[in-house]
């Protein structure tokens, strides 16, 4: 760009990244970008892409309960005040009760270097930092249209997504919230401090986050001194290489500095291979249900009673009508309305007609027809999604909806329906089950690393909400609430962040890898009925491609016994094995990193299956293979003897050596080897098992994921 003036260069500049690495983002044309990439001092140039957001009882369900006096369990009371959690999202509503400074709050940690930016967000000893990043969004989409998008040019939250996720992770204890899910709301680490980084902005009712803004937020967060970063956004496949992904680069920098990073795994399920945020240095989270339900009785005429799920506060009566009477083809969508009013009528809609992907679509249609209420028949997973509805809505499964329709068709007169009011019931439904929408593995970038890593509550999660933002964010919804139900891996992600904050506080010397390991190796694979966790929609047993290591268990994660540790050098070797060049790997490292980027043959693993991850994945097993793992003793006692138990994948012989690990010191390391041998012919299928190390108290579990693809050859 020799012909460009200094003024032109300054005008094109968006961000200068100074803390994590030396770089910048700027508005360039293709010729300028190509010229820049050819300069000797430049490692790489890539385009800034746009990422999308992944959109009370949950902590009780995870074992972090509130007692009769309103106090939380010891781990939540004892830990967290020295930990700072950074939330990368749509901002914050600082006036929410979740973010008020508790009277007993300790001084802000002296290590904190962040600040509050913007005059309409005021920080305290709970909310200690707030920044916003708009330059990348502005260059991609133009100036914010406040009239259309109602956005705030500050850290203040308009969409509600960021307020909700922040309250889930670290919200203070708030009593007497929301009628149906009433009780005490709080985040996983209610004593932890909150730092907000507004990277995502409202555009056409969606949250959009540009990579230029995301990388700037990571740069600041690393400098500010956060301990945990929670980011509920991602990019649907095809996934970008790690060295061209701002989120992955920023997360790498954070982990190098000892900061744990957790991402949502995406809402593209249930098809396989669509999981997002698959870098091994960060945690990717699936979404699952909790054991709370809101049963609602549906009375039809005098003797026909059925059950659904809703948040209806008072009884509603009306005539039963099929959607075909008011909507073209029976498709409950705004544009299909036949211009007939459904006064004092309860309409039955099926999600399968159209199809109607979201309950809100059917609700908007029912409002247009002036219906009194809606009965929405959908899959079991969609039936469980609790929302603050625009029109009173009872969710039923397809079978129940069909029974209602058949009753209507057989009746000689118009049936009368009475619904509600709803109840709140704990423990009646079996949980967890994995959400149908939750993105599944394997990783499309690195199939030798299991993703998602873990599953956590992500359906019907109650969290704080901006009172100036309607609960559905849809046109025509003018309601004001302070607590809202939301669903998505966006909601499961901050659950893991809250647990990370507790672990960071309880074990300040642990690395991000040790924290990840503690969460994964203590996770559960069984539901409240002690059966295998089911996959939403199909209601078949899950496997690690659905739930990773399993369902998070915060109390067990506090004392895992053994952990799998990794260092920056291990991540570099991982990138070498993928085939990245030294130059590409340099884009991942911090500015003053001491790690080598030389991909020497003697310096690499044989495969990334040897990467010291808490799960073990063999992406293609044709012949006998042996991999290595190393564990560290972090239990309360220095003297420990662990024995191995093995559940073998079908068609695979598994041997572990040694079968006994003897520890005599704290933080002592021991390695073991696992040999996989195919015993049956397969042209390609995933099979699953597990390895468990136990000392009688701790149970350190690693899932085994093997793609058996021996092409007709069986190892002898």
Core attributes:
716 residues, seven-stranded parallel β-sheet, disordered N terminus, seven-stranded mixed β-sheet, Rossmann fold, alpha/beta, 18 helices
Please give the oligomerization state of what you see. Answer: single chain
Average per-residue pLDDT, rounded, comes to 88
Q: What is the number of helical segments per DSSP (H or I, 4+ residues)?
A: 18
CATH topology of the largest domain: Rossmann fold
Content of β-strand: 25-35%
**What would CATH call the homologous superfamily of the largest domain?**
Peptidase S8/S53 domain
| CATH class descriptor name of the largest domain | Alpha Beta
| Shape, per Cα inertia axes | globular
Please give the largest β-sheet. 7 strands, parallel
Residue ranges: pLDDT <50 for 5 or more in a row? 1-9
The CATH architecture of the largest domain can be named as 3-Layer(aba) Sandwich
Helix content: 10-25%
Number of strand elements: 36
Cα gyration radius (Å): 26 Å
Whole-number total of structural domains:
5
Give the strand order of the largest sheet, numbering strands 1, 2, ... along the chain.
Answer: 5-6-4-9-11-12-23
Structural class: alpha/beta
Measured between the Cα atoms of the first and last residue, the distance is 63 Å
Active site: 89, 161, 490
Domain Subtilisin-like protease fibronectin type-III: 610-706
Family: Belongs to the peptidase S8 family.
Domain Inhibitor I9: 6-54
